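Hi R.,

Here's the chain you asked about this morning:
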Amino acid sequence: MIGPRGDAYERNETITENEAEDYHAVQLETLKKANVDLAFAMTFGNIPESVGVARAAAKIGVPLGISLTLDSTSKLISGESLAEAITTIDNETGQSPEFYAINCSHPLEFEPSIEPGDWVKRIRALRPNASKKDKIALCQIGHLEDGDPVELGMLCGDLASRYPHMDIWGGCCGTWDKHLNEMAKNVLAA
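And here is the predicted structure, written out as tokens:
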């Protein structure tokens, strides 16, 4: 796992593609020496940093998945749509990421961003938050919020039925065994 430089929930307007490539290359080199099968860049919220980590991984020869985080407006924290982000990252990197994911967002936050288009087929993994609460509110309450495990499972089952190519499922903030059990039940049924 590779995290973004700085706070994942704030706009990192200062990082450029080249800075991100240099910054993430250090950890990717270490992962390559450890013979990892896949590096997973998690909770990325802007295009330049995503492009930089993808370029670094491609240069070093480490397969990479990129997981983007959307806010309550169904967009990246930097303001772009999911379609714009994936299309831009792919165009700037020669489609070097193995796949994309969405994490640290509740389905009600990210589902509206999944619009028709070939780019959707590049999304393979979903790791939703348990709670519908805004990320900043979640950070301020001082504990993990459970949300509604049954509802989360049903929402994931609905997504699985509409997007059968999405085949990696997991949980992010606030998810526990009860959430994962509901998700698994509904995704398998789909």
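One quick note: Helices lie at 17-33, 47-60, 82-93, 107-110, 135-141, 149-162, 177-189.

Cheers,
M.
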